[in-house]
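Notes to self after the call with IL:
- keep both proteins in one doc
- input above output, always
- annotate only the second one for now

Protein 1:
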Amino acid sequence: MKPVVGALLAFAVSLVRSRMALHLEILALRHQLAVYHRSIRRPQVRLIDRLVWSWLARGWSHWREVLVFVQPATVRAWRRQRFRNHWARLSRRHPGRPAIAKELRELIRDISAANPRWGSPRILGELRKLGIPVAKSTVEKYRGRPRRPSSPSWRAFLENHVTELAALDFFPVPTIGFKVLFVLIGMGDVGSKTTCAGS
């Protein structure tokens, strides 16, 4: 904070000084900046320094010519980060959609339970007739769904129908005499049968 206040005071004093004195002071300051730039590789930059240079970059067209301690791209990155932080703070105040009232959730469930054959569009239409503006996704989220009986597992299906199942496989087998045998294998309740044919 002190460097910023000092710079503002120096600016106020420079308004009443002579033009020659200002040019000599600018020359001395530029020389000192060159020495610091040569000896210090990475200067320590605080938040107030970033704000000052973001403000200068917005309102002064020659800010790139006097910038020494960082690159102009760094100042532009500071401005973009400040913009992102500003909108991130605004978005954190009201995250997501507003909560649905408990009475409305219960009303959707009651309508769905009383009319199990109604889908979301029908319930949505009835709510709009009552003057309740609500989205279709909200109705789909809170309406009740009838529970379906669980289907049997694959193992239970095989155990129940093992006597009624049959399996077939058909594949070619090349022989040592450069012929091809076509093999058909059938498996069922009676047993297994194998049929071979040569071409």
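Protein 2 (the one to annotate):
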Amino acid sequence: MAVRVAVLGAGGKVGRALVRAIAETKGAAVLSAAVERSEFPYLAADVSQLAGLSPSGLRLTDQRPGKDVADVWIDFSAPAATMANLQAGAAAGAAMVIGTTGLSPSEKEKVAAAAKTIPIVFTPNMSMGVNVMLKLIADAARLLGPGYDIEIVETHHRLKRDAPSGTALRLAEAVAEASGRDLATTARYDRHGDIGPRTDAEIGIQTLRGGDVFGDHTVFFLGQGDRLEITHRASSRDTFAHGAVRAALWLAGKPAGLFDMQDVLGLK
């Protein structure tokens, strides 16, 4: 039986990509609800047509789906909306895939609390490539050891609000965990003026913003005499959408718990 999926934030760029990605599953998933904010200019439009597909008759609404309408909710919205959606999803008993970035520590705690009653996949980047990259950089950090300095550079479009990106922070967490460092004390987010020599323990995290870049992330391992660079570049929002739909298919029927894309891809 097809997994019924509700997309929250369905009228946005990623939301439209999600609608297309669900259609491409060839019946493994079916779009059962499409939700947007009440002031969205195309509210009540045919969501499939809005996404560039043939009309389906399913229209955008500002009402979240009720119980038994969807098996999984996919949320790519804004932090405040995600918190409201999280509460509603828990009340409806729906599994949730959350791709919203920029959540505060307290908001992340609310996600973890909700996962005690419903299954949730929460990750700052749904791209399968990025999640394979997380494993590669953790392996590299362990194998190369303390003789290599670690720097992370991320680039996104000029409209992105949060910095560093959630993906850059997750990359930093991965290399910190693998190399036995405390990210809270070793992360270095800016360099300006006479800062002295680089410390052995610090992990540099630098942010670039401009143009229409979907998302570029590079982790540098800089040694004496050589360096290793591991890069992921997103060329389309479709990569995030396909990853989120894969997560929804994996999550359907799972017990309550907090999962990430490493779980979905079997990389743990």
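Annotation: Residues 133 and 232 are 7 Å apart (CA to CA). The chain has two domains: 3-126+237-264, 128-234.
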